[in-house]
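Z., the sequence and structure:
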Amino acid sequence: MPGGLSVRVEPRGLGVALGLLLVTLAAGVVLIGSGDFPIAPADVVATLLGDGTAVQEFVVQELRLPRVLVAILVGAGLGLGGAVFQSLTRNPLGSPDMIGFGQGATVGALTVIVLFDGDATAVAGGAVVGGLLTGAAVYLLAWKRGVHGFRLVLVGIGVAAMLTAVIHYLITKANLVDATRATVWMTGSLEGRDWTQFWPLLAVSCALVPVVLAYGRPLRMLEMGDDAAYALGVKVERTRVALTASAVLLVSVATAAAGPITFVALSAPQVARRLTRSPGPNLATSMLTGAALLLVADWTATNAFGERQLPVGVVTGVVGGVYLLWLLVTERKAGRI
């Protein structure tokens, strides 16, 4: 019908999305019930519905629910940001982890910690500013009659190397207390996350996620190349700038909320694509995959090593490193690198 809205729904993609949503909810309930004061999943659900005891209400609502909600939003933001950049660069290695945006946010946060002794809010603001400035720098350095994926990846890798050197310099410049604080932040952790981290993260997510999802169709066309996208009526540079800015801000805010949690942005879009067996950016499933991956990683970090709890960034780093090696071998066998 002329002027009507056409929506294409792929049954497998919809089924995967619903399955990932159920996994995310189930992992969240299990994670809320885990800890020094264990709560059965049924009691967690009852407490969330307002039927728990006073102690359960306090533990769930004040201590554990904010952490789980922050984990969901951080994982979703990283997964969505990773999907955008991998589609824009047409490269599975075109992840914020690899092309400098995570390192830029880390430099911003460490600058506030080491040079200005800022509080948690100032550190989060520094991470956001650092990520945005890095995104702008990478985009401008990669510009040459437009921004092409291969050039963006190469420039991003170079910027990431320079920013890593700056990170090491800031650590060596810091006193012992600031160096310890910076190292803990750099590991990436959800420990102690509360409602003060959740609400700003929710506000940014509500503002940016619909924008990114609305560009899903033009992004799919951009994967075919700029010339094909132009022929199909896509405003290429405007679309690329809007998606880049939105994805950089999502990743920066996620990093500000939980520290630089590595490899979720790299692996979530690839896992989503293999689950759906569908080409294209798979934005919604990448977002749900990122949330589920981070929740499972956080449960592993807090429960799989006895009394010794690990920061979630350690688990994602180990698993993500193995995944990266596998991805490199796969891409080499396919002749793409």
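Residues 212 and 243 are 6 Å apart (CA to CA). The chain has one domain: 11-333.

Let me know what you think.
H.
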